[in-house]
Amino acid sequence: MKRYLPFALLILSAASALPAHAASREAVHSPKQGVICDKYACADDKGLSKTLTEKYIGKKAATKLFSQGEFDTTEFTLSNGIFCDTKERLCRKDRYFGAGGKRSAVSDKYTKMLFGK
């Protein structure tokens, strides 16, 4: 047992050096221009897509996501908190409204990733 303790402490110290949200932020990616994915779903400029989710994440994820009944696929929040609205053609820092009922700031990085602007 004692011989494993230094190794366990090394692993714990390495894991604690990373911010808690680092893994979820890195999980959002763009497999090609105009497509954005996290570990649960993929979307294009029309919204969440069963076809793209199946292609880039897998059939199991696509079936799970789209078996929840009807829902608005044009507005979605990614696993890192980024909120995208395909009708507005923007992604924002989050889905919440601030003072005065204004939406959060635009995320240039994710808006460009999804909409190319």
From TrEMBL:
<dbReference type="InterPro" id="IPR008617">
    <property type="entry name" value="Uncharacterised_YcgJ"/>
</dbReference>
<keyword id="KW-0732">Signal</keyword>
<protein>
    <submittedName>
        <fullName>YcgJ family protein</fullName>
    </submittedName>
</protein>
<feature type="signal peptide">
    <location>
        <begin position="1"/>
        <end position="22"/>
    </location>
</feature>
<dbReference type="Pfam" id="PF05666">
    <property type="entry name" value="YcgJ"/>
</dbReference>
